[in-house]
Design a protein that fits this description.
With about 280 residues, this protein is of the alpha+beta class. The chain is built from seven helices and eleven strands. The chain folds into two domains: about 120 residues, no CATH class; about 120 residues, Gcn5-related N-acetyltransferase (GNAT) (Aminopeptidase), CATH 3.40.630.
């Protein structure tokens, strides 16, 4: 597909919601891992308020989320916001086409975003969700890069190679607990014989989330990211997933590489943030 093409999936509300909750499942997996540590040192709290799911852990984290359906009452929305205030936690919220309206086409009430802005949330960014539903594609390019896959019982072997890729990266107890839960697979990509890139895949039901990919600066622009995307996509469909998806910022190399690997825009969303200040 040409990189200047603007091709969107025509997804209905349930499908956007499925992707939103599949992304939330990956956060819950990380936080369940942290919660399993003795004494809960990360102060993890996982709680639902009506249909809304919330995830809190100590520190200012992008994963400290409230996952709204859009059908919450204003009282339930306020309860979620107060929950984050009570725990002195930052809050991140995704407002997407599925939760922007209450229940289209029966009602087009724009409840969620208006109420969040009224209560002190700030629009911080716009992000892109990319999706691919084709298991194999004729445009999938062959690669000479060797990519090794590691399951949860190969944690030490993976971390040893990962430290060669992300020099100075720390694998403390918390990071280990959060990244080696059921559903996770980790990858190391090689440039010749050198560990050069690393990434992860999280599978939740029919959806596979390409969680992240990092290439060592000395090995960039050699096709490792595309190789990593395709390897994870093929592994996801081999595991009987029906779609692979990921999230990026706008207009840089990763979206271009995703398009080269057969991904299309599923939807864009507004990313809202709120500090733990009293409700306005």
């Amino acid at each position: 597909m040409p990189l200047d093409a603007t091709v969107s999936f025509v997804h209905d509300r349930p499908h956007v919601r499925l992707l939103h909750h599949a992304h939330a499942d990956h956060i819950e997996s990380i936080y369940r891992g942290l919660l399993s540590l003795p004494g809960n040192p990360a102060n993890v709290v996982i709680q639902s308020f009506g249909p809304a799911r919330t995830f809190i852990a100590a520190g200012n984290r992008l994963e400290n989320r409230a996952v709204f359906t859009g059908e919450e009452t204003t009282g339930q929305i306020d309860s979620v916001l107060q929950h984050f205030i009570d725990h002195q936690s930052n809050l991140v919220i995704e407002v997407n086409p599925a939760n922007f309206y209450v229940d289209p086409p029966r009602t087009w009430e724009k409840r969620l975003l208006k109420h969040l802005l009224h209560r002190g949330c700030v629009i911080h960014d716009m992000r892109c969700v990319w999706c691919r539903t084709l298991p194999r594609d004729r445009q999938d390019s062959a690669t000479s890069h060797r990519i090794l896959r590691f399951s949860s019982d190969q944690m030490d072997e993976y971390i040893k190679l990962a430290l060669d890729v992300q020099v100075g990266g720390e694998w403390n107890t918390e990071r280990r607990a959060g990244n080696f839960q059921p559903g996770w697979t980790h990858y190391i990509g090689f440039d010749a014989d050198a560990p050069a890139a690393m990434g992860s895949l999280f599978i939740s039901g029919p959806s596979a989330y390409l969680a992240w990919w990092f290439t060592h600066p000395a090995h960039r622009s050699r096709g490792l990211q595309q190789a990593g995307i395709l390897r994870r996509v093929h592994d996801a469909f081999d595991a009987d997933c029906t779609q692979a998806f990921t999230v990026t910022d706008f207009n840089f190399s990763s979206p271009a590489n995703l398009q080269r690997c057969g991904f299309q825009i599923a939807y864009n969303y507004l990313l809202l943030r709120r500090d733990p200040l009293p409700l306005l």
